[in-house]
Amino acid sequence: MNELPNCPACASTFTYDDGLQYVCPECGNEWSKTVDADATDDTPSVRDANGNPLFDGDSVTVIKDLKVKGSSLVVKVGTKVKSIRIVEGDHDIDCKVDGIGPMKLKSEFVKKA
Description:
By secondary structure, the chain is mainly beta. The protein is built from one helix and 13 strands; from the N terminus they run βββαββββββββββ. The protein has one helix spanning 35-39; strands spanning 16-17, 21-23, 30-32, 46-47, 53-54, 60-62, 66-67, 74-75, 80-81, 85-86, 93-97, 101-105, 110-112. InterPro entries: YjdM (IPR004624), YjdM_C (IPR013988), YjdM_N (IPR013987).
């Protein structure tokens, strides 16, 4: 028997195959069959404060004053950070801030430049 995935919206087990997509008869949700292949992608999905996807090498702008832990320094609003690197973890951006040095930032406090 062919095993179909549960509905991602309501977790119903009554999904059916409708050609290029799956359909849930309980909630009416329709989703592509290629969603399963994208879920196994190894690259982390990191988005900025506005929901734009971030990738290695992008430039971002800080949207909030950020205190540097263990120091009296502050990363000011509007500071542009170039050549970011996406990493796993809570602080998902690895970068070098001019005047401060290497540090990690949370993606929720930056926007794509």
